[in-house]
Amino acid sequence: MQLENFIRANQEEMTLITGAKFGSSDNLEQLFANYLPLIKKIWRIHFIPGLEFEDWSQEAMLTLIRSIASYRADTQVRFCWFYKRALRNRLRDLYRLQAAGKRIPAAQIGELSKIHEETLPDINIHAAVHDQVECISLYRELQDQCSVFENQVFARQTQGFRINEIAQELHCSPKKVMGGLERAHRKLVRLAQ
Fold first, then answer.
1. For the segment 128-185, what is each residue's pLDDT rounded down to a tens digit?
2. Which residues have C-beta within 8 Å of that of residue 142, sequence separation ≥ 6?
């Protein structure tokens, strides 16, 4: 009886999911359009350098197709929650792939607040001077707007550390690290716009 009520309450979405499962491209496109605000929000909050929105949209569409294929209504979990979780997991996978070859030993990592302007130009020697100045300015503004904890987790994440590794090093929970990262990323996105 509960399953019937769940399906009845989510009838429109369940119809789209079922149609997409059986190959209806119209239903798939409608579901994607329905979730486009969520896709944009997750992309803005979880900043990955070099990941353009068009690339993220393609990843989100592939994730939607996989989510539709594996979604089961009998779990009585709303599809929006299921898809949101899948999007976040995919974004984390993309971040891990990007960061895989860029890890620096923990002993060599300095906190963001300790980065001096003389060392920042060495990050990318091929960048134009104007870009380097903008980068330095952006880091200074971010340092001023972030708390000490946000600066610590952000610096470690940019060095390629995983959430659990950061939490272990800073002696806190992974949930606290995720919160600090989300706040720092939101501030960075606001500053960059």
1. 545 656 777 777 788 888 889 998 888 888 778 888 889 999 999 989 998 998 888 8
2. 112, 154, 184, 187, 188, 191
At 49-91, the pLDDT tens digits run 777 888 888 988 998 888 888 877 777 677 778 888 888 888 8
Residue 68 burial (CB < 10 Å; 0-12/13-18/19+)?
A: buried
Just give the CATH number of 2-99. Answer: 1.10.1740.10
Burial of 60 (0-12, 13-18, 19+ CB in 10 A): buried
- Would you say the CATH fold of 106-192 matches that of 2-99? no
Report field, pTM of the whole predicted structure over 0.70: no
| Correct CATH for 106-192 of 1.10.10.10, 2.60.120.560, 3.90.1640.10, 1.25.40.10 | 1.10.10.10
* Among 116, 189, 118, residue whose Cα is nearest residue 154: 189
